[in-house]
């Protein structure tokens, strides 16, 4: 019997074909993932958050102060006028200053004597020697002060005298009750009526003693009130004398040189109106100067802690000045510094403006020039456009609680985003 020879047959490719398709699918997915990653990085997404902030000149403004109670004669400059350092910009009313100095001297003397009267053991016996060396107006002021001092003492003594009169009447009433009680006890009538009368007299005596104790308390309160009034008047008189002496020193200085000068070179930005011969009750800024060389401005805005995580120093921002229309000027800059407030609830971001934006702010022809620290503009700040990858990253971490996010090391956060995107 012959055997059939087996012929060689090639192995079927079904053994390696699944591996090929798995590798091919992996390569396609990797290619799609890399393309998607590249596309996400290339797509920019505008930021919709707006932050409130302020914009102001960086350096202090220069002003010409008019001290309190110093009368003005005239202002010699107008807004827009150039002035040099030390130039006279306003004249003071020298005649009014001399008159005011004379009045201050009278007030100082009268208030000093008024305080001495309050410190005297008895205001009625106080004799300041009004007729010695004082003019008629000064004598009148001194007499008014003494009258006020004596009226305070007179009100107290009148009240005390009235209470003393009432006390004398009550004591006389007590003496009569004592006599009546003695007579009642000496009666030989029935014991029951005698006991009722004695009890009634004892009750009346008790009420009189209570009234006497109340009068003693009222008299003590009157004395404390009088002493407190005297101390208050003494303090007020001493404070007024100190203020008058300070004002006298200021006026004496301007009496010798009745003018105001510019503290530095610059342009008059504002003149506060004041009629000739008048003065301010408190020190005020009369003239404001603007240094033309000033071209630095500072801008800042506030963000929450979670919003601050999506920001970093060097990030580009745009600033819109509020109060303008939609086509108003747009300023640009970068985040220069970020500082958390002491409460730890928000972050203050400081902006360094671009050179072009600084020139626009400093140019009066542009209509947005800011002059003086008191002149600040409210702004809204928007961050520069971000890529789609950054938008997804910020969306992820803004949903994570802030303490938990802060605990993530930076390398882990980056590693997570690299694998997630």
From TrEMBL:
<keyword id="KW-1133">Transmembrane helix</keyword>
<dbReference type="InterPro" id="IPR050465">
    <property type="entry name" value="UPF0194_transport"/>
</dbReference>
<protein>
    <submittedName>
        <fullName>Response regulator containing a CheY-like receiver domain and an HTH DNA-binding domain</fullName>
    </submittedName>
</protein>
<dbReference type="GO" id="GO:0003677">
    <property type="term" value="F:DNA binding"/>
</dbReference>
<feature type="transmembrane region" description="Helical">
    <location>
        <begin position="20"/>
        <end position="40"/>
    </location>
</feature>
<keyword id="KW-0175">Coiled coil</keyword>
<keyword id="KW-0812">Transmembrane</keyword>
<keyword id="KW-0472">Membrane</keyword>
<keyword id="KW-0238">DNA-binding</keyword>
<dbReference type="GO" id="GO:0030313">
    <property type="term" value="C:cell envelope"/>
</dbReference>
